[in-house]
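Running co-folding for S-adenosyl-L-homocysteine.
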Amino acid sequence: MTEQTVQKVNLLGMGMPALEAFFVDRLGEKKFRAVQVMKWIHQHGVDNFDDMTDISKVTRAKLKEYAEIVAPEVISMKDSKDGTRKWVMKMPGGSAIETVLIPEDDRGTLCVSSQIGCALDCSFCSTGKQGFNRDLSAAEIIGQVWIAVRSFDKPGEKRQRRVTNVVMMGMGEPLLNFDNVVEAMGLMMDDNSYGLSKRRVTLSTSGVVPAIYELAKVTDVALALSLHAPNDALRNTLVPVNRKYNIQSALDACNHYMSRFSEKRVTTIEYTLMNEINDKPEHAHELVEVLRNTPCKINLIPFNPFPNSGYERPSNNRMHRFRDILLAGGYNVTIRKTRGDDIDAACGQLVGEVTDKTRRSDRFIEAVELGRTAAEIASTRRQRTVV
Ligand code: SAH
Ligand code: SF4
């Protein structure tokens, strides 16, 4: 008989149903072991089965034979003067991603990446400029949370810097990595894991419309739409996926997503302000009209510059004028504070290190293809990449 090497399963990215199935089907163990192990991994930050002291030696031996707990490799962790912390994590294959924690008063918001690079090529986004390499596995996505939570080991730091909110606003378009993102968000909200409420986990999308409808079937996290323009002509130039799914179709999808809830929940509209591009008073007036039928709050993001971007951040005066028109239109509006400037940790500055596997000229076509297949992917529950 030839000896077979057992491919170990990484338990880090498994939600409760998958973990229970693993214990029952693969190990012949009772279901409740899954609860114990999930708590060890995510609540105690354990990656060594021997540290799981309430699990019998026999079961631990089986676990060591068939399973592992592997998080991304951290290559650097930097703290900004304002308390923002940024990790660069190396991924198998040589590329790298970035994760950022933004502490604020009594909360800590972790900005998590979903892909290495991004195929959607928005004109003002440094991630988009780098091209696309691959999807992150569920383990690599939740691994960013696991690493962040584990890193607060100095006395007092746990409280000060704890992760209370997660936003899928790092590198990548989360809806084009549907299954892995949904699995990881499930773990963020599971009481046996991080136990975050559905209002404290936010998925941000550039508007992959069919996948928003799919998302409505499987989760109830908060939803943010990256709009950035009040009309299709302008949005087509900034967010190329708009040529496939226009503004109205994206807003309809968000309204459908929110219509399922009995309590009042609204879409967050993200709007990155770029000098002379989308920040004129007429843009603000147009936005007031466009959003009329979309219950929302508006988050204005001052453009974060990066080398050769070709865009500029507007003056504070221009940004305030824009905000005031929206306020007068009756909207709830905030201007996002820019954080982590000194460590390049702001929105859209995340660069990691991406080996582009697409040709730039093909990128838009691919993006549209990906957009079209997102729904098919979601409905066929494609097999996840387990790394
Ligand atoms: N792909 C998703 C989530 C990641 S981007 C999306 O596009 O929504 C998170 C947010 O940062 C998005 O609203 C994005 O448009 C914005 N962003 C990208 N580049 C930026 C930049 N240079 N300055 C400010 N915001 C930027
Ligand atoms: Fe991708 Fe979002 Fe950047 Fe657009 S803004 S390129 S969708 S990460």
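Result summary
The radius of gyration is 21 Å.
The longest strand covers residues 96-104.
Job closed.
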